[in-house]
UniProtKB/TrEMBL annotation:
Primary site of residence: membrane
Cited SMART domains: CBS
Annotated Pfam families: CBS, Voltage_CLC
Annotated protein name in UniProt: Chloride channel protein
Length: 829
């Protein structure tokens, strides 16, 4: 076993070290980013962590040329100006390498120092005052720009996806850019029963073989539907593979990891934004069992990341940048569901790791701006932000809580099944040759989906339109087969305009089709989520729940009609009254299934009630969502996003998890008894050559500094990156620094013989107050410290003597061991 240090990295073979740039003591090797081949498998690409960087991911670097304060517990009295020996700042210092974790404490200290510097200068001149005001308002400005861009892109995606979805069935000859509904708006030849038929809209069969009806027309439309579906899917996966591998998947697991402090270069870049926007439209139009709502959060975060580079306050500080990303994720959900408040709560409950009150206000403002822009674009032509906005006018009754809770149980069971099945399939994809052919996989899934979906009108529909039809209550203007009820002329009295009625043949045939659609959606969603195209999970989960809910709603409605004398119907359901609303059951089922998969609670209820525009149904929604969470948690506490984070081995400490074991810091720290001793620096007994050899022979990202090998008294902590840059700079700028020069981390240079070369003082790069715990500290407290302070490493001492080190990866491995999991199988596969 090798020693663990801030990167928690084992020593790599010399060839690997040389290739990665660690073998040479050069600044270029330090700042070189990881190769493009190191891609994330969970984000839809292959992440190669088998190199010498495997255990090096958790470490960043200390900022050079900045004044910052490190805190240890409540002690905030160590303030060090870094690297005073340098005349000018070196480019690249203060940034982090790819696949490293940021130092939250240092970033917050940097920001406080920057803020103090600006405040101290603002009274010197009008220009400094202007700069101070600009700095103060830059936060509001960046979230405003993020909201504007998110709303505009969401509107563009909605319009394009609707048009391309209808392109699978036909085309509007009078205006090629109109979708089916828009094409028939201006026609005077539509009828009420067939409002979607007009001479301006031509199906592919009419255009190619000149037949509108008959088996030949059906087969031609079938073939063209499959052709367009495969074409869209192939184009989407090809663009993702060639131009932006990070553009695939939902993006929410990676965004949660990034917001926790992990760095994934390019994941929120301009290429990812552009390709994700284009391929999201193509993926939705292909008819795959996926949604655009989850990826819209990724799109919004890309906008937030890009705009943050316009403002130095955010571009130079990774912790501040994550505040913008939290606000951007709220804007993404705001435009996805037309739910600004739900978006803020989603950001708070589901994705954000650090969420101060200031970020709450800015998230609310970003969500407001994004929703306003989307409403101005009006992509659906109904003055609403989403396609499936509904309003119900009948109340719910107490006896209906029983079917609502049953829907919650179904949602929890579906969520538990989906998480296990999808993770098993994704793990199999990673471990077999099938995962090496992402284009082929997408083509196969798209072909199976298109072939099975076309014959069933409910699976042929765009999923958002299906949800809209299932949510909609049966009014006098509805011509859907779901509303094919028989009018009972023998009713003694009519209480409402549209009382509960017996179901007609259309309703029964629709129920059979919905049952087949339910089975189809359940199976296909398991295999679709995780393929290499942008794929959201919100809409497929809501569709499954809405189908189940509508079936249950119709069943309860017919029970109430035929058995209105039963005791629980008799009190509430008067004969001839409109008692049961099947669309409400669809809405509750949709919320229950989405809650079962994601384990969201508060934000989900708010999102769904913002969809319906009524506060009256909050209690049924809360009952169903909480039931689905309890049932799902009985099979496993992880939601789908946490499960994918664990599958991909991201260094994410979930604040929702509880650590209840009674181990101590000494049980987890490295080195263990069988490991080689800790690699350390002494404060004044090592030469430049000794340190350079240590850097070349090891791949650790930092070294504890002790007084002497005998005393083992801790002095501080020095990062590998800082040591390398400081030594290189000293060789260039200070005369007399050679390999035999003594390196001094102490405050006073020890007396040296007259003929000795000039010593090198490196106290300025030393972190004088690293976080330390004693060997008897319970691991429960250590885990809590890592979660709440965002630490990367913590030193373990006994009576002031250095014993070992605990890194974030050590904690993740220990938590896996206590959960009876193989630690090697969950870390950076």
């Amino acid at each position: 076993m090798s020693q663990r240090l801030p990167g928690d990295q084992r020593a790599a073979p010399p060839a690997q070290l040389f290739h990665r740039g660690y073998y040479r003591n050069s600044y270029n090797s330090i700042t070189s980013a990881s190769s493009d081949e190191e891609l994330l498998d969970g984000a839809g690409v292959i992440m190669d962590f088998q190199t010498s960087e495997d255990d090096n991911l958790l470490d960043g670097d200390a900022s050079i040329g900045t004044h910052y304060t490190m805190t240890n517990g409540g002690n905030i009295n160590s303030s060090t100006h870094l690297l005073d020996l340098l005349d000018e700042p070196i480019p690249g210092v203060g940034t982090y390498d790819d696949f490293h974790t940021i130092d939250w404490v240092r970033e917050k200290c940097k920001d406080r120092e920057r803020h103090r510097r600006i405040n101290s200068k603002k009274k010197e001149s009008a220009w400094e005052m202007t700069k101070s005001l600009y700095d103060a308002w830059s936060g509001w400005l960046v979230v405003t720009l993020t909201g504007l861009a998110s709303g505009a892109l969401a509107g563009l995606i909605d319009i394009a996806a609707d048009w391309m979805t209808d392109l699978k069935e036909g085309i509007c000859l009078s205006a090629l850019w109109f979708n089916h509904e828009q094409c028939c708006w201006g026609s005077n030849e539509t009828t009420f029963e067939e409002r979607d038929k007009c001479p301006q809209w031509k199906t592919w069969a009419e255009l190619i073989i000149g037949q509108a009806e008959g088996p030949g027309s059906y087969i031609m439309n079938y073939i063209m539907y499959i052709f367009w579906a495969l074409g869209f899917a192939f184009l989407a996966v090809s663009l993702v593979k060639v131009f932006a591998p990070y553009a695939c998947g939902s993006g929410i697991p990676e965004i949660k990891t990034i917001l926790s402090g992990f760095i994934i270069r390019g994941y929120l870049g301009k290429w990812t934004l552009m390709i994700k926007t284009i391929t999201l439209v193509l993926a939705v139009a292909s008819g795959l069992s996926l949604g655009k709502e989850g990826p819209l959060v990724h799109v919004a975060c890309c906008c937030g990341n890009i705009f943050s580079y316009l403002f130095p306050k955010y571009s130079t500080n990774e912790a501040k940048k994550r505040e913008v990303l939290s606000a951007a994720s709220a804007a993404g959900v705001s435009v996805a569901f037309g739910a600004p408040i739900g978006g803020v709560l989603f950001s708070l409950e589901e994705v954000s790791y650090y969420f101060p009150l200031k970020t709450l206000w800015r998230s609310f403002f970003a969500a407001l701006v994004a929703a306003f822009v989307l409403r101005s674009i009006n992509p659906f032509g109904n003055s609403r932000l989403v396609l499936f906005y509904v309003e119900y006018h009948t109340p719910w009754y107490l006896f209906e809580l029983l079917p609502f809770i049953l829907l919650g149980v179904f949602g929890g069971l579906w969520g538990a099944f989906f998480i296990r099945a999808n993770i098993a399939w994704c793990r199999r994809r990673k471990s077999t040759k099938f995962g090496k052919y992402p284009v082929l996989e997408v083509i196969i899934v798209a072909a199976i989906t298109a072939v099975i979906a076309f014959p069933n009108p409910y699976t042929r529909l765009n999923t958002s339109e299906l949800i809209k039809e299932l949510f909609t209550d049966c009014g006098p203007l509805e011509s859907s087969s779901l509303c094919d009820y028989r009018n009972d002329m023998n009713a003694s009295k009519i209480v409402d305009d549209i009382p509960d009625r017996p179901a007609g043949t259309g309703v029964y045939s629709a129920i059979w089709q919905l049952c087949l659609a339910l089975i189809f959606k359940i199976i296909m969603t398991v295999f679709t989520f995780g393929i290499k195209v942008p794929s959201g999970l919100f809409i497929p989960s809501m569709a499954i729940g809405a189908i189940a809910g509508r079936i249950v709603g119709i069943a309860v409605e017919q029970l109430a009609y035929y058995h209105h004398d039963w005791f629980f119907f008799k009190e509430w359901c008067e004969v001839g009254a409109d008692c049961i609303t099947p669309g409400l059951y669809a809405m509750v089922g949709a919320a229950a299934c989405l809650g079962g998969v994601t384990r969201m609670t508060v934000s989900l209820v708010v999102i769904v009630f913002e969809l319906t525009g009524g506060l009256e149904y909050i209690v049924p929604l809360m009952a169903a969502v909480m039931t689905s969470k309890w049932v799902g948690d009985a099979f496993g506490r992880e939601g789908i996003y946490e499960a994918h984070i664990r599958l991909n081995g991201y260094p994410f400490l979930d604040a929702k998890e509880e650590f209840t074991h009674t181990t101590l810091a000494a049980d987890v720290m490295r080195p263990r008894r069988s490991d080689p001793p800790l690699a350390v620096l002494t404060q004044d007994n090592m030469t430049v050559e000794d340190i350079e050899n240590l850097i070349n022979e090891t791949s650790y990202n930092g070294f504890p500094v002790i007084m002497s090998k005998e005393s083992q008294r801790l002095v501080g902590f020095a990062l590998r990156r800082d040591l390398t840059i400081a030594i290189e700079s000293a060789r260039k700028k200070q005369e007399g620094i050679v390999g035999s020069s003594r390196v001094c981390f102490a405050q006073h240079t020890p007396s040296l013989p007259a003929e000795s070369p000039r010593p090198l003082k490196l106290r300025s790069i030393l972190d004088m107050s690293p976080f330390t715990v004693t060997d008897h500290t319970p691991m429960e407290i250590v885990v809590d410290i890592f979660r709440k302070l965002g630490l990367r490493q913590c030193l373990v001492t006994h009576n002031g003597r250095l014993l070992g080190i605990i890194t974030k990866k050590d904690i993740l491995r220990h938590m896996a061991q206590t959960a009876n999991q193989d630690p090697a199988s969950i870390m950076f596969n």
